[in-house]
Amino acid sequence: MQVLKFGGTSVANAENIRKVVNIVTADPQKKLFVVSALSGVTDKLIEIGNLAAGKDPSYTEKISALSEQHLEAVKTLLPVTTQSASLSLVMQTFNELEDIAEGVFRLQEISAASKDKIIGFGELLSSKIISAYMHSLNIDHAWIDSRDLLLTDNNHGKANILFEETNQRIIDYFNASDKNLFIAPGFIARAETGTVTTLGRGGSDYTAAVIAAALHADALQIWTDVSGMMTADPRLVNNAKVIPVISYKEAMELTHFGAKVVYPPTIQPAMAREIPIWVKNTFAPGDAGTVIQHVAPREGEVVTGISSISDISLLSLEGSGMVGIPGSSKTFFTALAEAKINVVLITQSSSEHSICVAVNAADGTRAATVVNKAFAYEIDSQKLDPVKEEHNLSIVALVGDKMKRHPGIAGKMFSALGRNGINIRAIAQGSSEKNISAVISTADVKKAVNTLHERFFERARKQLNVFILGVGNVGSKLIEQIREQQDFLLKNLNLQLRIIGIANSRQALLAEDDELDLSNWQQHLKDSEEIQLPMLAKKIVNKNLRNTVVVDVTADEAIARSYHVFLSRSISVVACNKIACSSDYAYYRRLKELSADFNASFYFETNVGAGLPVIGTLNDLLRSGDEIVKIEAVLSGTLNFVFNNYDGKETFAEVVKRAQAEGYTEPDPRLDLGGTDVMRKILILAREAGYALEMDDIAATQFLPQDCFSGSVEDFYACLEKNEAHFKKLYDSAHDKGCKLKYVAAFEQGRAMVGLQEIPADADFYHLYGKDNIVLYYTKRYAQQPLVIKGAGAGGDVTASGVFADIIKAAP
Ligand SMILES: NC(=O)C1=CN([C@@H]2O[C@H](COP(=O)(O)OP(=O)(O)OC[C@H]3O[C@@H](n4cnc5c(N)ncnc54)[C@H](OP(=O)(O)O)[C@@H]3O)[C@@H](O)[C@H]2O)C=CC1
Ligand SMILES: N[C@@H](CC=O)C(=O)O
């Protein structure tokens, strides 16, 4: 014997009902199938009862609409010749419903018994209509009135089965029947007094489980609209996978914690008789589904699933008045029990100084009131503080039989959540070790479940959610590089690099649900909303995505001054903008500390030498115990290009303009020509080497006439033209000595300096061509011959690829 249950969506309309009937008649095995009401009907019946009780005459319209829905189902499902009996049954049922609702309307109150009577009509109607349809197809079967088999107490709304009598009635009924196929309404039963009772939300699953257990059925099948129990809620996690086999206890944990496919109490009767429960999909009957059974042999995964429950409130009672006093917990929980408040999660500190419980949000304030009342004496005498209530919380839980005695699971769970800035309000793990639960803010649930899913089920694949601020020379190249490389990263590094946002100084293009489509991002950005800091930062934070990286490809001070906002929310920052790391030392340190404290990466390799590994190499030297003795460097791609190309044939201004057109200069070229850019770079290297230097500490000699710094960039170029003779003189002086001009930076014994130098032909810097940079690290280990890094030190493409490399490094 097999017992099947089909939920509301499985019997939502004529088309679905046909699918159900195909499933139950697909093989000749003996079967009972239990059905829910047509989709949405129970809610509408509850509404009718409430409207009538609230003296709202519109309940009659609702009855007509509901009646119409059922009449329509009959008309589409049954051939015209066989419709009349079913149509009159529907009309009769709705007349009865109308009579009851009218009584409620007159009395202006609804008893629990009347409510059960009203909502029980849904299953009666659906099962009768499906039965009529099977008769029309000549499918031999029996319709069972579940009210005659399931006997309950009088606890209307969530009645308790009286098992002894119920089991006997079920056995007797099936022993006496010669049929092979049965259909029964779920959810409804009858009390000893004869009144209709219901088994609570999801009660149709329970009806099926009770009958399956009584009959020692071979299997219980729960047919729904998903292909089994999933590793996480598929509405939250795109990559959620079906769990092929799961133990009863794991399934109970998952269903209690929000996996809605099976109504939790269903599992108990089946487990008691070791009846396997299958979760199958009515709309994909060929899918294997999930089997819930005694033991679940599973290779690999230690965690079976991740679930969550929302609408949680946390209550904390704290104070010395509980320390060493037996009975405090009893008082606490008795108060809640007497108020019929269900406790979802409990934690108590070992110092006995506090008890903390999670309850459903609807009960939160009432729970606080009853506990405060129970401890009124201790609170009045200031031995305890009044209960602290916190709302808008949820619980996420890891579930798995194999977590028992498997060290490190909790560590992985909490470090993954912590790395993503998810604050944990309370934690619980029973000694069975099958469930580790954490109470978190509801706003973090999606991120938390995805983070945990990635950590425990997608170890091979990591997702990185990237916001790119700045789409000029470097930013636009970066986007193109990412676009070209996304497939490669997925295939070869299992890294799903998603661009979620792109912004310039005026507008931001932010993805709604998924990543941005990069095929025409320029146009989409033009069409996007106008938004700037600080709202832009707020939007990025509020997206609340896991593994988020903000990439600063601007030269903007305000953006650089907002990194702390991101880092302090565990959002990584990658910057080629040099302003933050060369601002006041306190801010630079603060960013470093936030990065460490909040487990967020902060990478800025391209601040010095563009794509060259200048900062990374310095860090590697120091980490391995080396010490920096001296740094000598040419750090300006622009100035190297300019002095390599200027010989007086073209004016100095024209050569600088060429450097700008090639994309080597800062957005404001005066920063390059005035030496600020090089000062920033040597400052950053000195700081990375461990020295708390400020910009003012750098000795700098100017080669530009001072008047070139006032006015606009146009004025600046005009000034360069005006001073052409000055530049020619500089050139000639070096050339006459067989030297080349190089703008050099140096750092030694805690002091940094920058300035233009005439470099002789036998010096390291002489053979430095184009826009190349060179850095010489003299260290304790590289004492005589320095460690040399040399190559292209400016340009959109190389800088973008350095930024890209930093982004990849920020992946978890
Ligand atoms: N070029 C190179 O070789 C190297 C450059 N860098 C650094 O790269 C950074 C970018 O340089 P580059 O691409 O040449 O500069 P561009 O001027 O070409 O581009 C700057 C971009 O930043 C945008 N922007 C400015 N302010 C904001 C803001 N508040 N919010 C969002 N976007 C903003 C601009 O938008 P809008 O167009 O609206 O103004 C523009 O899209 C600089 O910090 C530079 O120091 C680092 C190493 C090498
Ligand atoms: N403007 C800079 C670009 C790299 O930082 C330079 O010219 O070196």
TrEMBL record:
<keyword id="KW-0521">NADP</keyword>
<keyword id="KW-0808">Transferase</keyword>
<keyword id="KW-0560">Oxidoreductase</keyword>
<dbReference type="InterPro" id="IPR036393">
    <property type="entry name" value="AceGlu_kinase-like_sf"/>
</dbReference>
<dbReference type="GO" id="GO:0009090">
    <property type="term" value="P:homoserine biosynthetic process"/>
</dbReference>
<protein>
    <submittedName>
        <fullName>Bifunctional aspartate kinase/homoserine dehydrogenase I</fullName>
        <ecNumber>1.1.1.3</ecNumber>
        <ecNumber>2.7.2.4</ecNumber>
    </submittedName>
</protein>
<comment type="subunit">
    <text>Homotetramer.</text>
</comment>
<dbReference type="InterPro" id="IPR002912">
    <property type="entry name" value="ACT_dom"/>
</dbReference>
<dbReference type="InterPro" id="IPR036291">
    <property type="entry name" value="NAD(P)-bd_dom_sf"/>
</dbReference>
<feature type="domain" description="ACT">
    <location>
        <begin position="398"/>
        <end position="476"/>
    </location>
</feature>
<keyword id="KW-0067">ATP-binding</keyword>
<dbReference type="Pfam" id="PF00696">
    <property type="entry name" value="AA_kinase"/>
</dbReference>
<dbReference type="GO" id="GO:0050661">
    <property type="term" value="F:NADP binding"/>
</dbReference>
<dbReference type="GO" id="GO:0046872">
    <property type="term" value="F:metal ion binding"/>
</dbReference>
<keyword id="KW-0457">Lysine biosynthesis</keyword>
<dbReference type="GO" id="GO:0009086">
    <property type="term" value="P:methionine biosynthetic process"/>
</dbReference>
<keyword id="KW-0520">NAD</keyword>
<dbReference type="InterPro" id="IPR011147">
    <property type="entry name" value="Bifunc_Aspkin/hSer_DH"/>
</dbReference>
<dbReference type="GO" id="GO:0004412">
    <property type="term" value="F:homoserine dehydrogenase activity"/>
</dbReference>
<dbReference type="GO" id="GO:0005524">
    <property type="term" value="F:ATP binding"/>
</dbReference>
<comment type="function">
    <text>Bifunctional aspartate kinase and homoserine dehydrogenase that catalyzes the first and the third steps toward the synthesis of lysine, methionine and threonine from aspartate.</text>
</comment>
<dbReference type="Pfam" id="PF22468">
    <property type="entry name" value="ACT_9"/>
</dbReference>
<dbReference type="GO" id="GO:0009089">
    <property type="term" value="P:lysine biosynthetic process via diaminopimelate"/>
</dbReference>
<comment type="pathway">
    <text>Amino-acid biosynthesis; L-lysine biosynthesis via DAP pathway; (S)-tetrahydrodipicolinate from L-aspartate: step 1/4.</text>
</comment>
<keyword id="KW-0486">Methionine biosynthesis</keyword>
<dbReference type="InterPro" id="IPR042199">
    <property type="entry name" value="AsparK_Bifunc_asparK/hSer_DH"/>
</dbReference>
<dbReference type="InterPro" id="IPR045865">
    <property type="entry name" value="ACT-like_dom_sf"/>
</dbReference>
<dbReference type="InterPro" id="IPR049638">
    <property type="entry name" value="AK-HD"/>
</dbReference>
<keyword id="KW-0479">Metal-binding</keyword>
<dbReference type="InterPro" id="IPR001342">
    <property type="entry name" value="HDH_cat"/>
</dbReference>
<dbReference type="Pfam" id="PF03447">
    <property type="entry name" value="NAD_binding_3"/>
</dbReference>
<keyword id="KW-0418">Kinase</keyword>
<keyword id="KW-0791">Threonine biosynthesis</keyword>
<dbReference type="GO" id="GO:0004072">
    <property type="term" value="F:aspartate kinase activity"/>
</dbReference>
<dbReference type="InterPro" id="IPR018042">
    <property type="entry name" value="Aspartate_kinase_CS"/>
</dbReference>
<dbReference type="GO" id="GO:0009088">
    <property type="term" value="P:threonine biosynthetic process"/>
</dbReference>
<dbReference type="InterPro" id="IPR001048">
    <property type="entry name" value="Asp/Glu/Uridylate_kinase"/>
</dbReference>
<dbReference type="Pfam" id="PF00742">
    <property type="entry name" value="Homoserine_dh"/>
</dbReference>
<dbReference type="InterPro" id="IPR005106">
    <property type="entry name" value="Asp/hSer_DH_NAD-bd"/>
</dbReference>
<dbReference type="InterPro" id="IPR019811">
    <property type="entry name" value="HDH_CS"/>
</dbReference>
<comment type="similarity">
    <text>In the N-terminal section; belongs to the aspartokinase family.</text>
</comment>
<comment type="similarity">
    <text>In the C-terminal section; belongs to the homoserine dehydrogenase family.</text>
</comment>
